[in-house]
Design brief:
It is a single chain. The protein is α+β, with helices and mostly antiparallel strands and about 725 residues long. It folds into three domains: about 1-30 and about 230-465, Neutral Protease Domain 2 (Neutral Protease, domain 2), CATH 1.10.390.10; about 35-230, Sandwich (Immunoglobulin-like), CATH 2.60.40; about 615-713. The protein has an eight-stranded mixed β-sheet with strand order 6-5-10-2-1-13-16-15, with no helix packed on it. The chain has a five-stranded mixed β-sheet with strand order 18-19-20-22-21, covered by helices on one side. Strands 11-12-17-14 form a four-stranded antiparallel β-sheet, with no helix packed on it. α5 runs antiparallel to α6, α7 (about 405-420) crosses α8 (about 420-435) and α18 (about 665-675) packs parallel to α20. Mean pLDDT is about 95; it is low at about 5-15. Bound molecules: zinc ion. Zinc ion binds near residues 1, 2, 326, 345 and 348.
């Protein structure tokens, strides 16, 4: 699942800072029954926005005896329940269906009930379930719009399945499925598993699609989407991988999906387990932003489709990789309960990083991981801090935040560094095989790591997974009597935050002509580390590969910063450019930062240098930088900085280049700035952008705001 965090932002804006430690404690559910198979039949009337359902549930009794059988069931009305030919009595409450069997049921008995129900036009309101960020929970109808055709879509994550079929709607109860859907004959239907039949109904105006998955699967991963989709057939080996898109999107679909077979191959190698399902479809829908990993049929927000120009700023491969990784971590093995969701999301999010590194190389991989850490730190600073396993929640989706997505990925990365690639991969393979089609919890993962690595890594999980926060350290260095003394203080504080972390780390000494790297262990709140050496290093770099999830405060000399800007890795160079901002009164700093904007090999360093030195650039320098800068991110900063310091020259540049810049995010920045520095004559220029397509409608949204500013002038 990847929701781009809109749900959480929404929740935060409405309810403010909630105390996550006051939420109710959740225990593992004590099931009376184990569902073995769902046979779901739906008849969709899209014009009336209603559906009829008939679901047969085959289940085994787990308790020694039971006199009622309960299913999760909401929104639709149940009219009849049958046990073979016998009609059963039942009670339907707001959230449950309680069935009274004709006789007491005993342990290990296998029973099948058939439940008839109808929606009567009732649709669940996601906001009632803390799901304000999605448009559908359960089964929803969309009318045709400028963006999507009329279609029907289900959203089962996290507790949406119960709104379209009665179920034991919990990740820990997996069952096989047959999903049979009847829709108008000009529509197609996608669901879990393999398509085993399509046939017209007797009336001839509808088609019935039968999809079947003979492998057990959790209900939040069940899906059904119906609409006038175009299907592009692809393969990985002999496994079908189809891309289902709106007819208008067919020409651009390959940009979003063409890497899918390569991504599957990548994860097969990474996880050491063959793709576990019979096929893989991906389908675009209007109801979400990111995606959801419904087994064998991932749903992706329609905004994932984009044109060639958007490919560099809004690529889809990371989302495809995230959802593909879930087919192993999430679908093949599934968290035992919602507060173990990091077992799903951290692996999928780390999958984004791994695939990015594979596709673009180590430097872009570093940027990817660095951004993930910033995203967690943003939540840590502005919202809350919690352990990744936190069994206190009211709604399952409260577990899905930046702590388990980006922070989880950063934690897995540290585990990989400690274990080494070989053991880390071996642990993933063993974990996946051991819990195939099952539901592990966090302790199960710890046990496998310990078993495979032949060491006790409980300390790692205790401090990184079962505790909150991260190390915040102060570093001071001094050179005395041919010895470098490095003083390290851990200063982190907070609820459930370790007073001291155990941190195996690297430290690098940048000498005039060489870099000396040493390994250290930090295991006290305050520690002193001594390194004999002939000369004082020009600068000292803690965690030189940026492997740790850590905040470091460290003073560098001016000369140290200048050297860091030249010699460190791209994350270090970017940080050096930021720090040099405080030395802008020295002409040497300005000269060097300007050189960095032109010469550094990494766009993220050039971007940071533009931000630092923008106030000291001439309008000519801005114009020439705009013309020569190939990457959109620093070019966007050039526009914003130039508009601040040279509004009239910037206005001229924007007017001349707005229509031809080859990046949507730079055009968006230009439109935003036109609203501030433009005049009446720009209204006409902007009007054409009101209707123009852009990824996630960024140009349209910026234009609406700027036009209103210009009209008010
Ligand atoms: Zn996910």
């Amino acid at each position: 699942m990847k929701l781009l965090f809109s749900i959480f932002v929404f929740h935060y804006l409405i309810f403010g800072q909630d105390n996550i430690y006051d939420r109710p404690l959740q225990k593992h559910p004590d099931f009376d029954i184990d569902v073995l198979h769902y046979d779901i039949n739906l008849k969709i009337n899209d014009l009336q926005k209603t559906f009829f359902g008939k679901t047969s549930i085959n289940f085994k009794v787990l308790k020694s005896k039971i006199d009622t059988v309960r299913f999760d069931s909401e929104t639709y009305k149940v009219s009849l329940i049958k046990d073979n030919d016998v009609s059963l009595q039942f009670i339907q409450t707001d959230s449950s269906l309680i069935i009274l069997p004709s006789k007491t049921l005993y342990k290990d008995e296998i029973i099948e009930y058939t439940i008839y129900y109808q929606s009567d036009g009732k649709i669940a309101n996601p906001a009632d379930y803390n799901m304000g960020g999605v448009k559908v929970l359960g089964l929803g109808f969309f009318e045709e719009s400028d963006y999507n055709p009329a279609l029907v879509q289900t959203h089962s994550w996290p507790e949406g399945a119960r709104h379209w079929f009665p179920s034991n709607d919990h990740p820990a109860d997996k069952a096989t499925s047959k999903i049979v859907t009847t829709v108008r004959s000009d529509w197609k239907v996608l669901s879990n598993g393999s398509l085993i039949d399509v046939k017209p109904t007797d009336s001839g105006d509808s088609l019935t699609y039968t999809w079947q998955l003979d492998l057990p699967n959790s209900t939040y991963l069940y899906v059904m989407v119906a609409g006038p989709f175009e299907v592009i057939q692809d393969y990985y080996k002999d496994i079908p991988m189809s891309y289902w898109v709106y007819p208008k999107d067919k020409k651009n679909a390959h940009l979003s999906f063409h890497r899918t077979p390569e991504i599957m191959e990548f994860f097969e190698k990474e996880y050491g387990v063959p793709y576990p399902w019979p096929k893989m479809d991906q389908i675009t829908i209007p109801g979400i932003n990111g995606g959801a990993e419904s087994t064998t049929a991932t749903i992706l927000g329609e905004t994932t489709i984009h044109d060639e120009k958007a490919e560099k700023d809004f690529p889809s491969h990371w989302l495809v990789a995230h959802e593909a990784a879930h087919q192993w971590f999430g679908d093949y093995i599934t968290m035992s309960n919602w507060h173990h969701a990091w077992l799903n999301e951290s692996f999928a999010t780390y999958g984004e990083y791994l695939y990015s590194t594979h596709l673009y190389g180590r430097d872009e991989g570093k940027i990817n991981l660095w951004k993930k850490k910033q995203s967690y730190l943003n939540e840590y600073r502005n919202r809350y801090s919690r352990p990744m396993v936190h069994p206190y929640w009211e709604y399952p989706n409260q577990n899905f935040d930046s702590h388990i997505y980006p922070r989880g990925a950063a934690v897995l990365h540290m585990l990989r560094v400690i274990l080494g690639d070989k053991i880390f991969k071996e642990f993933q393979t063993v974990f996946l095989n051991k819990f195939a089609f099952g539901n592990p919890n966090t302790q199960d993962l710890i046990d496998v790591v310990n078993e495979v690595s032949k060491q006790d890594l409980s300390w790692f999980f205790q401090q990184w997974v079962l505790s909150a926060g991260h190390p915040q350290i102060d570093i001071n260095t001094k050179f005395k009597n041919k010895e470098l003394i490095v003083e390290i203080k851990q200063i982190q504080e907070g609820i459930k935050t370790p007073e001291k972390y155990y941190i195996p780390a690297k430290i690098s000494f940048f000498m005039k002509n060489e870099i000396v790297e040493k390994e250290i262990i930090i295991d006290e709140r305050n520690s002193i580390h001594r390194f004999p050496m002939k000369k004082e290093p020009i600068f000292v770099r803690f965690d030189p590969d940026d492997d740790l999830l850590i905040e470091v405060t460290q003073k560098h000399s001016y000369n140290g910063l200048l050297n860091k800007l030249k010699r460190d890795n791209l994350i270090g160079r970017m940080r050096a450019a930021e720090s040099l901002y405080q030395y802008l009164d020295n002409p040497k700093t300005i000269k060097i930062l300007k050189q960095t904007t032109m010469n550094d090999s990494s766009w993220i360093v050039r971007k940071s240098a533009f931000q630092a030195v923008g106030s000291k650039m001439s309008s000519k320098e801005f114009i020439s930088a705009y013309q020569s800068e190939k990457h959109s991110e620093p070019r966007k900063v050039i526009i914003s900085e130039m508009s601040k310091f040279y509004p009239s020259e910037s206005l001229k540049l924007i007017r001349e280049n707005l229509d031809t810049d080859n990046s949507y995010i730079v055009q968006e920045e230009m439109i935003k700035n036109l609203g501030n520095i433009g005049d009446e004559s720009d209204i006409l220029r902007l009007k054409s952008y009101e209707e123009e397509w852009s990824p996630r409608r960024i140009l349209k949204n910026a234009t609406v705001k700027s036009l209103s500013k210009l009209r008010d002038k």
